[in-house]
Amino acid sequence: MYDVIIIGAGAAGLTAAIYTCRKKLKTLIVSIDVGGQTNVTSHIENYPGTGAMHGVELMRRFQDEAVGFGAELIMGKANKVEKIENKFKVFLANGEAYECKGLILAYGKVPKSLGIEGEEKFMGRGVSTCVTCDLPLYKNRDVAVIGGGNSAVEGALESATIAKKVYLVHRRDAFRADEVTVEKLKNNPRIELIFNSVPTKVIGEKNVDGIEVENIITKERKALKVDGIFIEIGYVVDTSFVQHLVKVNEKKEIIVDERGNTSHPGIFACGDITPVPFKQTVIAAGEGAKSALECYRWLTGGKGAVLDWTH
Amino acid sequence: MYDVIIIGAGAAGLTAAIYTCRKKLKTLIVSIDVGGQTNVTSHIENYPGTGAMHGVELMRRFQDEAVGFGAELIMGKANKVEKIENKFKVFLANGEAYECKGLILAYGKVPKSLGIEGEEKFMGRGVSTCVTCDLPLYKNRDVAVIGGGNSAVEGALESATIAKKVYLVHRRDAFRADEVTVEKLKNNPRIELIFNSVPTKVIGEKNVDGIEVENIITKERKALKVDGIFIEIGYVVDTSFVQHLVKVNEKKEIIVDERGNTSHPGIFACGDITPVPFKQTVIAAGEGAKSALECYRWLTGGKGAVLDWTH
């Protein structure tokens, strides 16, 4: 039983964890990645106080601090939340479940998913949505990058600097990226382009062993033997699994007050999953701190000590 | 003529400056200090990404970044703002005045002032509200610390480590600080306690030469020859000089929307001068970023280029 579960480990979620831990709340973070949207900024200059660095490095610092103050971090995709008496039960795609008294939703924009078998099961454990974050795991191994936009093309090029073999799986037969970049792609001997194809299944028992793809013209399916899969098909707000508990706006963003309270007592939200303007790391961090302190206030009834919510 | 004037150089104001400068807005910061309330935290651990450090050091980093991106910084107390056609004119206590198209109010809680002659004139130039920030200027020189609370007592002890002579001027004849601390104070040969006394005038022409104090029992006045004066009598929200332009709440805090807009177009506010909950550095920084980006949006009519507001 945790005092607080935070779903999401971007700037908002990790800052919330720093604050809840410093209030001595037993805190669990559940996330499919560490760093969220900040990771995709290779040179972040406008987060005050740290100087310029890669977004991944900045988010590692946030993570180190949150974990240093006592937060537990579990990689996995939360896909169900139930209110049970005075507790919330958070279910992960792999079947695990955890309970808490206060819940902070901070998982921001999430990478669009393929919606195929095995994807959720291996999310954060072989299936990744962040090349820069997870590529070091695949030195001299084989990976597939899924997508045809700029981030997919650049992700494939980046992957080819470390991985042995890179499949780039694209549903069309051409890329929209600029010519220079596409030329680089075509001339790279480590990269194999799989055109007119969509993934149909992540293959594997304990680990990812490969990905099955279907040619959308011939309907032929084949398995690509890979150790890692990077999904690079864009981002979206997805609040579907919490909409039975909290109110959302027309963009499906979770409505919060100025302290991070949602419409449901004990559930708080912060960062890009809310209508907060200007998607910036320092803004998300500030909102994370508010949510955490409001969660603390709520859990302690304003009295500064965690109440026993079991009765 | 500046695109933006930011009043205040705490976490909110400095972050706002980082953001306006990175949008290529010509930015002036006017402030009585650098660092604001963050300075008083000697060991700030919960600002994410930097590790623990003194608040003054963290705020110096913010300052270096803001100035590095092009912000100009002038020390001085803004005490009047006029709307003139499409511009705002900001007057300082020393008589200087600067014009801008957009105005960001970020001066937070301000140290309570003594309300005596010479105080505003020398604010930031011999009169200081932050011992830790400005003490290095007074190595082997003489200073007065005004106040009787914890921060005054600790400020006097800290001053005595660097200054040659320290007068602690207190309106009562005893301190509320704990006994151990008061003993240290009394046993320190560099510190002279001036009880039952209130300051009546800052003495000086170009620089601070001393402070005149009055014994409230005998009504006798005397001049203490000092080079620097630290006022340590608490903090307050003071929006008196902008209330003819912007709406304030019952606590005199400036009312803003979720993007930092005040009730007056072109005037924005952020940080502790607004009703933002939980006075935290990272929260103030986030609010500063919002105000700056909203100011940019307003100045450019949402088109991304600064409009000519002179017609």
Brief overview:
With 311 residues, chain A is of the alpha/beta class. Chain A contains 6 helices and 17 strands.
Structural description of this entry:
Two copies of one chain form a homodimer. Chain A has helices spanning 11-22, 55-68, 131-134, 150-159, 179-187, 281-299, and strands at residues 2-7, 27-31, 72-75, 78-84, 87-92, 97-105, 110-111, 127-128, 142-146, 165-169, 191-194, 197-204, 208-215, 221-225, 228-231, 235-236, 267-269. Chain A is built from six helices and 17 strands. The two termini of chain A are 14 Å apart. The longest helix of chain A has 19 residues, at 281-299. The first copy, chain A, is α/β, with parallel strands linked by helices and 311 residues long. In chain A, strands 1, 2, 3, 4, 5, 6 and 17 form a seven-stranded mixed beta sheet that branches. In chain A, strands 8-15-9-10-11 form a five-stranded parallel beta sheet. A three-stranded antiparallel beta sheet of chain A has the order 12-13-14, with no helix packed on it. The first copy, chain A, has two domains: 2-112 and 235-299, FAD/NAD(P)-binding domain, CATH 3.50.50.60; 127-231, FAD/NAD(P)-binding domain, CATH 3.50.50. The interface between A and B is medium-sized, with 34 and 34 residues.
